[in-house]
Design brief:
It is built from eleven helices and eleven strands. By secondary structure, the chain is α/β, with parallel strands linked by helices. Strand 7, helix 7 and strand 8 form a beta-alpha-beta unit. Helix 1 crosses helix 2, helix 4 runs parallel beside helix 5 and helix 6 crosses helix 11. The protein starts with a strand and ends in a 12-residue tail after the last helix.
């Protein structure tokens, strides 16, 4: 198996991406194609003090910055993102992993790879830790505007993911809304509620923002705008709480002693909420495997994202999604239905 990794993506560039990719090649018995500026990648090999036998450099002389828009993409035809995704298109790589510009990766992957047959819009999905384990949240930013049919497809894709990757049979699926009652929400969620009731899934009804981390649903479906806001708010809350706790602990001597006694448990807690343990977001419904990590990813996050890409390929998740959508095709109307 060959996994292409964007060596130029993320806030920290090649240093982190190369380190994580080399670790993944060693730990998971994979061939890694590091895509980026060859001279910079070789410099990181020198820093590490060795080269990896199962890592190959694919030169891509251009890089898309984290803050650049689609205008830059159209002019950077040799960017590491475009070259890496093209490798998947040409079956020279089984998957692509990037910690780079999310909008750029989503745009190029859609343009180059395209959606699976029957899929209206590939959805960006992310595993989040909950009181009961892990919940899959989708869409978290790929599609700001959705139809009820899109949300139904997201639910079907989420079910396949949880069954094939997480080994969870008949996962419960909730619809993000502003209240649990059936009539709550905007026109989109009301239409989607009706469709999800009839879909071949374990639909449990509406869930609210407070339910994201409670574990009430194994999969939570929303449009990309709502999902992205929920995700960013959650990230901010976690970081703020840990920062506030650290500040309060440092103020008091007895608190410091208590912290030392609880240090092992605090590390376990932090590991549970640390995004680097879960790899990245998966573009479900794409005609290829693409994993997008956080811009601030550590080497461990890159390693975890490669592992997730491997699991995707091994489990044939995209093929399973294609099969499920084919079964449901008669129930899925054209993308332009009411609710867009």
């Amino acid at each position: 198996m060959k996994i292409a990794v964007d060596a130029m993506g993320g806030d920290y560039g090649p240093r982190i991406a190369v380190t994580g990719a080399v670790q993944a090649a060693r730990d998971f018995d994979l061939d890694i194609l590091l895509v980026g500026v060859e001279s910079l990648i070789k410099k990181e090999f020198d820093r590490l003090g060795r080269t990896a036998a199962r890592v190959t450099i694919i030169d891509a002389p251009e890089a898309v910055g984290m803050g650049e828009g689609l205008f830059a993409l159209r002019h950077k035809r040799s960017s590491s993102i475009r070259v890496g995704i093209q490798l998947v298109k040409e079956h020279k790589a089984d998957a692509f992993v990037s910690m780079g510009n999310t909008a750029a990766v989503v745009y190029v992957s859609r343009k180059v790879l395209g959606p699976l047959r029957g899929i209206n819009k590939p959805a960006l999905s992310l595993l989040v830790p909950t009181l009961k384990g892990l919940t899959l949240l989708l869409d978290v930013g790929a599609n700001a505007n959705c139809t009820a049919a899109d949300l139904e497809q997201f639910a079907l894709m989420g079910r396949v993911f949880m069954e094939q990757i997480m080994g969870l049979k008949n996962p419960s699926i909730g619809l993000m809304s502003i209240g649990e009652e059936k009539g709550k929400g905007n026109d989109l969620t009301k239409l989607a509620f009706e469709r999800l009731q009839e879909a071949p899934i374990n639909f449990i009804g509406n869930v609210e923002g407070k339910d994201v981390y409670s574990g009430r649903a194994d999969v939570i479906v929303s449009d990309g705008f709502t999902g992205n806001v929920a995700l960013k708010v959650s990230e901010g809350v976690v970081e703020t709480l840990f920062s506030m706790a650290k500040r309060e602990i440092m103020k008091d001597f007895l608190a410091k002693i208590g912290f030392l006694l609880m240090k092992g448990h605090m590390k376990k807690l932090y590991k549970r909420v640390d995004y680097s343990e879960y790899g990245g977001a998966q573009l479900l419904g794409l005609n290829g495997v693409c994993i997008i990590g956080h811009g601030r990813s550590s080497a461990n996050a890159v390693r975890s994202a490669v592992r997730m890409a491997r699991d995707f390929v091994t489990s044939r998740v995209q093929d399973r999604i294609r099969e499920e959508i084919a079964k449901a095709t008669p129930a899925v109307p054209a993308a332009g239905e009411a609710g867009s």
